[in-house]
Amino acid sequence: MKIIVHFGMVKTGSSSIQQTLYQNRTDLKNIYYPNFGIANHCGLMFSILRKQDRQKVDLLKTELSASHGRDILISAEMLGSSFDTSKVQALYSILSEYTKNIIAVAIFVRLKV
Q: How far is the C-alpha of 3 from the C-alpha of 73, rounded, in Å?
């Protein structure tokens, strides 16, 4: 199992990606898109990393456990620009309880024209 973290940037299609994944999460075969009640996981990440909300950490852990070994995709718009290195390391610490195979990539960039 691996955890993929999508760091969505503004105006790069993140919302569309998130909505598609969220609406089709039960049809995804090998990917588990956590159900936090909303497509964009940024609010949850904000609560965990900025406010250190234990209830939100528990919710995240519950969803990670529900993956049943499938790869997990977390998509949090603005995660890359909203948090400093220590916050991203805190997220890694939580996620690494489930797997050491964490891919923190998937940043889309839109060129200004």
A: 6
Cα-trace Rg, the chain:
13
Backbone angles phi, psi at 74, to 5 degrees: -110, 130
Q: pTM of the prediction?
A: 0.82
Cα 98 to Cα 38: distance, rounded to the nearest angstrom: 22
- Local structure of 53: helix, strand or coil: coil
Residues 27-45, buried b or exposed e (16+ Cβ, 10 A)? eeeeebbbebeebbbbebb
* First and final C-alpha spacing in the chain: 39
pLDDT tens digits, residue range 16-36? 989 999 999 999 989 999 999
The 3-state DSSP composition of the chain as helix, strand, coil percent (nearest 5) reads 40, 15, 45
Q: What pLDDT, in 10s, does the model give residues 56-66?
A: 889 999 999 99
> Which residue ranges make up each domain of the chain?
3-103
